[in-house]
# Entry
Amino acid sequence: MKRLISVAALGWALASLSTPSAHADSVVLPMDGQWHPFDVDAEFAPAKDWIDLSGDALAFTFNAAGPVALTVLDGGFAGDEFEVFDSGVSLGFTSAALDSYPDSFASTQAGFDHALADNRYSRGVFMLGAGAHSVTGLMSRSALDNTLVPLDATVGAVRIAAVPEPASWALLAGGIAALVGAIRRRQGPG
# Structure
């Protein structure tokens, strides 16, 4: 019995040495309002997870001091859609998009801002609270080529921006009201 256990343990050890370990890259996402790209390619990640250029799973991590808006955008061929996760919990899906292959490929032509302005591209805005976040995603629908075959590969991007809290909005509204009042007093009766 001891010999059988030793042989099994040796087999497991050899198998673990020959099997590549799953590697996930974590990108610390700055709150700079800039686009941070990801790729999807079913050849490298059959589940169509977000990956980096080397084919490794990709997670965008950040610590938010207050509420933030996470924007997820398709920047490849119009027609892709994504499911977005925060620490493994689904936040939901990006918007539905119409296929427009081959005349739409935003990321290599005009960039992600172009795709954001073009309603053919899927996008989603997800509100997240303060705290630690690890955002991942997967392609839930692929754009189709002109023979109606899924491309199963794309480029997308994420960005985050701080969201003013309600107290900040109230303070801003009060400041604007005071400024308008001061201007009216200076101008005198009209």
